[in-house]
Amino acid sequence: MPNIKSAKKRVLVTEKKTAQNKALKSALKTQIKKFLAAVNAGDKETAGKLYPETVSAIDSACSKGLLHKNNAANKKAKLSKKLAAIA
């Protein structure tokens, strides 16, 4: 445990940010799983509705620094490919 006041604060801030990042990443994964479940079920209508929400979640995670921009682009490309395959 740190002794210096600023180091103690950094520990607290890091714990808080880690919890926020973990929650956001978990929500992103859940959103992607929902979309993929709709695609695997062959439900075009639900997948069509979930696609913009999922892309928005990926963009949001990218802007917050949870995903690298290329990783986000890769995920979006894969999802759009899957959506096009069932449409």
Features:
Methane Monooxygenase Hydroxylase, Chain G, domain 1; 87 residues; mainly alpha; elongated
How many extended strands?
0
Indicate the mean pLDDT. Answer: 96
Name the CATH architecture: Up-down Bundle
Radius of gyration: 17 Å
Instruction: Give the overall shape, derived from the CA principal axes.
Output: elongated
Which CATH class applies here? Mainly Alpha
Low-confidence stretches: none
Helix content class: over 70%
Strand content: under 5%
Number of helices: 3
CATH topology: Methane Monooxygenase Hydroxylase, Chain G, domain 1
Separation of the first and last Cα atoms: 56 Å
Structural domain tally = 1
Notes on the structure:
By secondary structure, the protein is an all-alpha fold. The protein has a single domain, classed as Ribosomal protein S20 (Methane Monooxygenase Hydroxylase, Chain G, domain 1), CATH 1.20.58. It is 86% helix and 0% strand. The protein contains 3 helices and no strands. α1 runs antiparallel to α2 and α2 runs antiparallel to α3. It is elongated and about 60 Å long.
Could you outline the blueprint of secondary structure elements for this entry?
Layout: H1 5-41, H2 44-63, H3 69-86
Helix pairs in contact: 1-2, 2-3
